Amino acid sequence: MRDLAAQFMALAEKQRAIVPLMIGHRLMGTSLLFTGDIAEGRTHYDQAIALYDPAKHRPLATRFGLDPGVAILSYRSLALWLLGYPEAALRDADDALKNAREIGQAATLMHALSLAWWTLGWRRNYAAANALADELIALADEKGALFWKSAGM
Q: Is the pTM of this model over 0.90?
């Protein structure tokens, strides 16, 4: 996973185009987060979100299946929590949810709901976490999205 993300990042750096760099940093951040290099992963998320321009990049949701900015904020929220920044983690989770609701694309919202659940659960705000899970399950049922339904369950 890390090798593929590094290859993507190298190609993006050669292109010097904003979108490939933004996606490359998100891929590197996620690869590093899930393999235990959380601080380095957060650095890549910070770089990715700095490149994200909602006016220009929200239309990419139809190409990639979800809004890149929501994905970056959602995963950075997990990284921030694990690094000991619970308030910053909650802000990113809240921003990801707010942006996903504004965008109005079901896949983006389901992604944000599923990851914000972790931050709220870790904060022991179980009522709010369960409300997000219930919303995710209902939306997934409506859209026939079994993967997201199982994530909510």
A: yes
